[in-house]
Amino acid sequence: MEEAIRHYRIVVENNPNFVEARINLAKAYEKAGFYDQAMAEYEALKKMTTVDKGVIYYCMAGVRSQQKRFNECERYLDFALQYRFNVFVYLKLDERFKAFRESPVYTKFMENQEVKRRH
């Protein structure tokens, strides 16, 4: 991961608007456990108009889940849903959300979504 991060950082430094490189850098940071750096890259991506914000918010939720910051995770999932990203297709199988799925915040999140769907 360290080598990948180094290469992606060089690319991003030379071309800050290269979306794919930034996405790969954020994912590499996340896999390496550098969550603050991953969030910084996702924040930068979120500000780029060409990026699907729903996907970015979902990725940000994944980082917060791994950090066991479940309330923030839930908030980012709500944002992803607002941008029409169907989090439910991925949420139950995505390993990044394992701890979140086992938390009371997840139960509350799912209950709230069920209530919203009924209305």
Structure at a glance:
This protein is mainly alpha-helical. The chain is 76% helix and 0% strand.
Look at the helices and sheets and give the structural class.
Answer: mainly alpha
Proportion in helices: over 70%
Instruction: Note poorly predicted spans.
Output: none
Distance between the termini: 45 Å
Range of strand content = under 5%
Largest sheet: none
Supply Rg.
15 Å
Number of helices: 8
What does it look like?
With 119 residues, the protein is mostly helical. It folds into two domains: 1-50, no CATH class; 52-119, no CATH class. It is built from eight helices and no strands. α2 runs antiparallel to α3 (35-47) and α4 (53-66) packs antiparallel against α5. The protein is globular and about 50 Å long. The mean pLDDT is 93.
Secondary structure: elements and pairs:
Layout: H1 2-14, H2 19-32, H3 35-47, H4 53-66, H5 70-82, H6 88-91, H7 98-101, H8 104-118
Helix pairs in contact: 1-2, 2-3, 3-4, 4-5
